[in-house]
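Running co-folding for magnesium ion.
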Amino acid sequence: MKVNVEPSNFIEDFIVEDLEKGRYPYVYTRFPPEPNGYLHVGHSKSLCINFGIKEKFRGRCNLRFDDTNPAKEDVEYVESIKEDIRWLGFEWDKELYASDYFDETYELAVKLIKKGAAYVCDYTADEIRATRGTLTEPGKESPYRNRSIEENLRLFEEMKEGKYPDGSKVLRAKIDMASPNINMRDPVIYRVLRAHHHRTGDKWCIYPMYDFAHPIGDALDGVTHSICTLEFEDHRPLYDWVCEQCEFPMPPRQIEFARLNIKNTIMSKRYLKKLVDSGFVTGWNDPRMPTLSGMRERGYPPEAIKEFCSRVGVAKANSEVDPGLLEFCVRENLNIHADRAMVVERPLRVVIDNMAEGEKHSFSVVNNPNDANSGTHTVNFAKEIFIEDSDFALVPPPKYHRLTEGGLVRLKGAYIVKHVATELDAEGRPSVIHCEYIPGSAAGGENAGMKVKGTIQWVAADEAVDCELYKYESLLTDVKDGVTDFNERLNPDSLTVVSGAKGEPFVVEGEDCKTYQFMRSAYYKRAGKFGDSYRFYRIVSLKDSFNK
Ligand code: ATP
Ligand code: MG
């Protein structure tokens, strides 16, 4: 078969080759999360690969929950995983669970026993570990290895019937205790475990191991390409062995790629769960969390996450990506899609002396200069306004292009103003300043062409909205003095709340959770109203720290 698809990485190269050689008549992938936590940004890479292949090769992709470990799994996680995948814009063909196949998996284990390819072993977990050998030494065969097929069948059935306590017996694949690959040294494929399962309830007291259940699930679903991360490379011979022993007519092909690692970013559900349980964060969707739900809460556009995955690419070698690349993708997206608004973080009151009380001059401003369809909104210039405290300096540092005593500055979207007087507080700091606006200096006016060095944001005092700004930093600090342990690297300053900011009314208009570029500040998402004040999450700064 000739395939008219341009492969863009080594996985797609393999797929094209498989199709052209007729190994598979179509392409079928799956995304196989374990429902033991929320998805993180690492998973988005696997999602982009598996669903990307589906789209590119006009194939199919299932969502298959790997629920073989009942003790750690929960329905809450199943629901969150589905929500996060949909949020990224992917739609699976079938929703399946490894547990859907517990009956078939059991029957296939019986089949292996009948072929003499599996046996019941009475060793404890410790004994199995102790006799497994090392990288340089072969393992020792279990004394139970040569039980008769009849005895194995009876014992395995009794295991299922609940005759044996947890951990007292396992079913092992009979492969090769001297194999150079430790995974092939008679791995455990079933264990006795009395745990309530979120789907099968108390039906089973034996559960298959991932290495056994996974190839079976893949094959029974009709998956052609089972894409996983590099740590499963050494498990591939076992994957192929299971497919061969089960005599699947079209065994799927396992292909491994490098996990996504991001500097200073925790990429393990287990550890993220610890952060949630310890209360260091407010939950799985805390805006600082590298989870998809955290990023959604924070205001990251899903397209930016996909663009990030695409820029990282698919590799066979592990590496660590700069978090600045993800922020860069978020910023690029918001630059095109977020409306501009004026917010003053630390307000300094300005009285416009040549305006009358109650006088108002309205200006129409473009919502987003990068989006021709974004529309306009009105800003009102009035006698009392706020500017950023740091935009006025009594003693300006060198190259200061903002307002100084006697100086001029342009107020964004409105007039040029000239400073005339300063009122000081008890500590000698400016508390109120007085300015005069220059008539005709707004866009289109006769004095609009006047040269001023700086343009600053401002907000009319009488209509200003109270804002609370949640500013986020990385959850983890850099590795310092060889300290790599996450617990010792938690950043105590990962959240700073700034109260008392003032925003133009536009920041509370429009849909819930709207994202904005607060001019000269950062991108923010509106997160709701709390008391009299509106809360905003800082999504990402305006400045690029990423070195392209
Ligand atoms: P965790 O250690 O966070 O639990 P996991 O690999 O055990 O991760 P699974 O739920 O088993 O998580 O993962 C589902 C799929 O996502 C698997 O195919 C897995 O390989 C992939 N995946 C998980 N983490 C990453 C990552 N950092 N980069 C790329 N793919 C990942
Ligand atoms: Mg896992």
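Result summary
Residues 34 surround magnesium ion (ligand 2) (CB under 6 Å).
The CA atoms of residues 115 and 478 lie 54 Å apart.
Job closed.
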